[in-house]
Amino acid sequence: MSIPSQYNASSVENKWYDYWMKHNYFHSEPDEREPYTIVIPPPNVTGVLHMGHMLNNTIQDVLIRRARLLGKNACWVPGTDHASIATEAKVVAKLKAEGIDKNDLTRDEFLKHAWEWTHEYGGVILEQLKKLGCSCDWDRTKFTMDDDMSEAVIKVFVDLYNKGLIYRGYRMVNWDPEAKTTLSDEEVEYVEKQGKLYYVKYKIEGSDENLTIATTRPETILGDSAICINPEDPRHQNLKGKKAIVPICNRVIPIIEDDYVDIEFGTGCLKVTPAHDENDKVLGDKHNLEVIDIFNKDATLNSYGMHYEGQDRFAVRKSIVAELESLGQIEKIEDYTNRVGISERTKAIIEPRLSDQWFLKMEELAKPALDAVLTNGEVKLFPKKFENTYRHWMENIRDWNISRQLLWGQQIPAYYYGDGKEDFVVAETLEQAVNLAQEKTNNLQLTTKDLRQETDALDTWFSSWLWPISVFDGIRNPENKDIKYYYPTNDLVTGPDILFFWVARMIIAGYEYKGQRPFENVYLTGLVRDKQRRKMSKQLGNSPDALKLIEEYGADGVRVGLLLSSAAGNDLMFDEDLCQQGKQFANKIWNAFRLVKGWDIDTSIEQPNSNKIAVEWFESKFQKVLTEIEDHFSKYRLSDALMAMYKLIYDDFCGWFLEMIKPEYQKPVDIHTLKSAIELFENNLKILHPFMPFLTEEVWQLIQQRTPEEALIISKWPEKKEINETLISEFDFASEVISGIRNIRKQKNIAFKDAIGFSIVNNENIAPTFDEVIAKMGNLSSFDYVSESVDGALPFRVKSNEYFIPMEGSIDVDAEIKKLTEELNYTEGFLKSVQKKLSNERFVNNAPEQVVASEKKKEADALAKIETIKASLESLK
């Protein structure tokens, strides 16, 4: 068999992915095995693969592939989220490019375009995940707008409404003027922006006096309903009972009193605009003030804006300030830093807006989910530090605004039959709604034509919070075999930024609709950042093309690169060098495979004792690292698990074990050693497979011919066996001896083909277990235990053991004595300076403990070095 000299990822990856798919290894059906279930955090249907997806899905694939190897019935459910705001924006942009205005379309016409867009672009990211090696059960792929998924959402809405938990209310909401929809509180990000604070003078009706208010939003002046003062403010006692005149529009408004106004802040006079500020709305309700909404849905001014009608709010801000200055009603302008709410999706600045919306009461629903994480530990967060964030959100939970003014999404199943606020019914179907409306109105003449459905769609999260249940049809058919077998799921891998958006809400839904947690463990990844610690984004241009990375370094190389420094919950400082390291690791394993497969076999020769010891050592070393790896997995320290494997394979297997058993040049290996080497190699492949699936399957299949039932992906995780700690410890010592021999060979330019003598003063009483290994790897002509130093030999130490390599004319003795003497003089001088410092009581008593300890270590190291140099000099004289 001809084995290529280089590992070629591009020729391997498609081959094995197709093979896995062909043999249905990813698919799961309920059986007698223990299930292991993961549901994918559904990426937006608009999405393309980015570094965050790469990290998140690599972690999931590692977990699911390991579960398969452990003999579990592994099921990883993939899918996408319909992403109402993002997708509608994409469709609107596409229509606009075609000269079509969304507003000219009926709902059905728009949805037709949306579905066409989804069918054309919506599966892109799932196809890209296959390039990464993700072993999802593609037969189970779900989309949050699938008919059965939508039916489940509607069923839950109706159920919660009938329980009195969903209500319609006229409230101040967060309005995204770009998407033209309301948002929940959690969909608003707050950022600091540099702005201005404008001090505006209002005339007092019937006098020449003025009062001054301070505002960051002078454009909202046109919506003012009152000026408020604190009744205890001594500065404004003269304003009580009077009225003020709003600049520009000259509307007369009352001056009201309320202790809500902070005497210490600003001018003590507060403009009240109930339609555009939540706190102002509270004041307005309390004092029965007029509500004047000055904005259109796109945040341009309406007719209340007078001559500014139709202009954008920020353009009006500049113009209105200029007009106020011309009227002499700007007292001063100051620089001001303000916290501004922006839309998490569109990044537009949010407008507070009064609106009729649908809300879900959360306080009672949230209690079981709060207890699950913080009291009884039924759901565990990794890392644990996120429990405090979870607690804060859940203990301060507010009612969830679940309606969106969008067409793309599940249409709210409320049906209106009249103009009154309560003239509606909620039902799963139009036919059921007609029956309910007839009962409610006692009018049997009502028909489907008399009802009109709510135009709002549901918040996207209202579908994805059911994801672990609805993907198994657990809402519509709560007793079906899939939901009973796969639910609750095991692990959830996601980002901490959606801990409340999605994770907490899924836990809430789990207890409400299944009476139990939706998953046991939540692994919270960090953000992927660049080397400058900046979050990767398209805007910054610092996010590499994920598919190009795979093309250049191979999927396995990228997976290793991502995970080598990705501890749970900590941000990953991504560096392409890590992917290069992953690629080099793949080549290291490939070359090890080529080495082993290149050996000739002689079945007649016995196994050398050095090989037998080497095999026993690596078996124990493997078992010790296997225990460490499983401990890391149990704590979701996947980066540490990978690093332990990396060191085991790169250093111990390739660097030591294969060198120990490698036959002499052009000589054969015995069959016992080869069989053991292949078995150990296969065990390495098994533990590495979850991290590097393509490379490991390729090598596994090349080691020997396999049937589909013997593929690595469905093989068995290595069994735990006894660990010989003594053997491991003895090898650690022996490896230092071998390194010492190699160092002297290198320093003195002694070729490995030239055998050298070797003598030992065994002060440590080290067992001779690895003597034959040392002799082989050092190419020693003799191996003698002696009681004292050997004259004319170069020494080195490992702990208190002394080792001597006779030089016998291979070096210039005089030159070596001169070199060692100079090194001795330097080290003795260094020792004196350190001891002088340590003899200074003031230094010892006042310096930090670690500094003193460091100096003492320097002293000990110098003393040991001096002793070694003196022994070397003595041996050369």
What does this protein structure show overall?
- The structure is a single chain.
- With 877 residues, the protein is an alpha/beta fold.
- The strands form ten sheets. Strands 7, 8, 9, 10, 11, 12 and 13 form a seven-stranded mixed beta sheet that branches. Strands 6-5-14-16 form a four-stranded antiparallel beta sheet.
- The protein is globular, with a radius of gyration of 37 Å.
- Helix 18 runs parallel beside helix 20, helix 18 crosses helix 23 and helix 20 runs antiparallel to helix 21 (693-703).
- The model has no long low-confidence stretch (mean pLDDT 92).
- Among the domains are: 181-351, Isoleucyl-tRNA Synthetase, domain 2, CATH 3.90.740; 414-453, no CATH class; 579-723, Isoleucyl-tRNA Synthetase, Domain 1, CATH 1.10.730; 746-876, no CATH class.
- It is built from 26 helices and 31 strands.
Keywords summarizing the entry:
26 helices; 877 residues; Isoleucyl-tRNA Synthetase, Domain 1; Isoleucyl-tRNA Synthetase, domain 2; alpha/beta
CATH class of the domain at 181-351: Alpha Beta
* Number of strand segments: 31
Structural class: alpha/beta
Major beta-sheet overview: 7 strands, mixed
Question: Which geometry do the CA atoms define?
Answer: globular
Strand share of the residues? Answer: 15-25%
Oligomer: single chain
CATH topology of the domain at 181-351: Isoleucyl-tRNA Synthetase, domain 2
Percent helix among the residues? Answer: 40-55%
- The helix tally amounts to 26
- Unreliable segments of 5+ consecutive residues: none
The pLDDT mean sits at 92
Overview in brief:
With 877 residues, this protein is of the alpha/beta class.
